[in-house]
UniProtKB/TrEMBL annotation:
Entry keywords, A to Z: Methyltransferase, Transferase
InterPro entries attached to this UniProt entry: Methyltransf_25, SAM-dependent_MTases_sf
Any one GO MF annotation of this record: methyltransferase activity
Methyltransferase domain: residues covered: 48-140
UniProt xrefs under CDD domains: AdoMet_MTases (cd02440)
Protein name: Class I SAM-dependent methyltransferase
Length: 235
């Protein structure tokens, strides 16, 4: 996987959320959590796997809302941050974190009600293989996001330390269909790329986000969006 060594360094894990979700990045965090919660709800007693859970942003949030959830990541440093977050939230007994390879999920077929991955497929060297594994271990739902090829994301994509794979709408749909899934719903957002929001304070980001959202509601919104959230189901 691109930038795998960089991603697993301790200092990257410690600073991961501050660099991405402080200031204007809070709008990214809020939108992503809304997308996940809306797609996976109702959560009570639902068995869920998060692939590439990182520091447990979503894992802890879903555990706090009643999900029976496992967070898996390749980076032990990221998982340690997740464990600390779970302890701080008082939900450490309601979830588990596991170090593992997304290409070989250590679970039997149909083990989970839902499997999801955020900020993952833009890094995946074998997206077809990974989504097939996700489909294998779920009995119902796979939820994931993609960064879009024909968007403002492409302007700075080359400069990212982990690289980034961009998808057209057709490629993302084919990814799901090729794994035997059907697209139940898709949402598009962020005409302005994530990197823009991360670079500015929240008070400055607020009016930009308002304009961004307004443009997203127009007929051009879906075509200009830099990120898409895909809700795929077993037929």
């Amino acid at each position: 996987m691109k930038g795998q060594e960089w991603y697993q360094e301790d200092d990257i894990a410690e600073a991961y959320e501050d660099k991405r979700f402080s200031g204007g990045g809070r709008y990214i965090d809020r939108r992503e959590k809304t997308a996940v919660l809306e797609a996976l709800s109702p959560l009570e007693d639902r068995r869920i796997l998060e692939v590439a859970c990182g520091t447990g942003r979503f894992t802890v949030t879903l555990a706090d809302r009643g999900a029976d959830i496992v967070g898996m990541d390749i980076s032990e440093a990221m998982l340690e941050q997740g464990r600390r977050k779970a302890a701080a939230a008082g939900v450490e007994g309601q979830l588990s974190f596991l170090q593992g390879d997304a290409g070989r999920l250590p679970f039997p077929d149909d083990h989970f009600d839902a499997v999801f991955a955020m900020r993952f497929f833009h890094l995946a060297p074998d997206p077809e293989g990974f989504i097939e594994e996700m489909r294998r271990v779920t009995r119902d739902q796979v939820f994931f996001d993609t960064f879009n090829r024909y968007s403002t994301r492409s302007i700075y994509n080359w400069a990212l330390p982990m690289g980034s794979r961009l998808y057209s709408d057709r490629e993302a749909r084919e990814l799901a269909v090729g794994a035997g899934l059907e697209i139940a719903a898709v949402e598009h957002d962020f005409v302005l790329p994530y990197g823009f929001y991360r670079a500015i304070p929240k008070r400055i980001a607020s009016p930009f986000r308002a304009v961004d959202t307004a443009v997203g509601r127009t007929p051009l919104g879906d075509r200009l969006a830099s990120v898409s959230y895909w809700d795929a189901r077993l037929p």
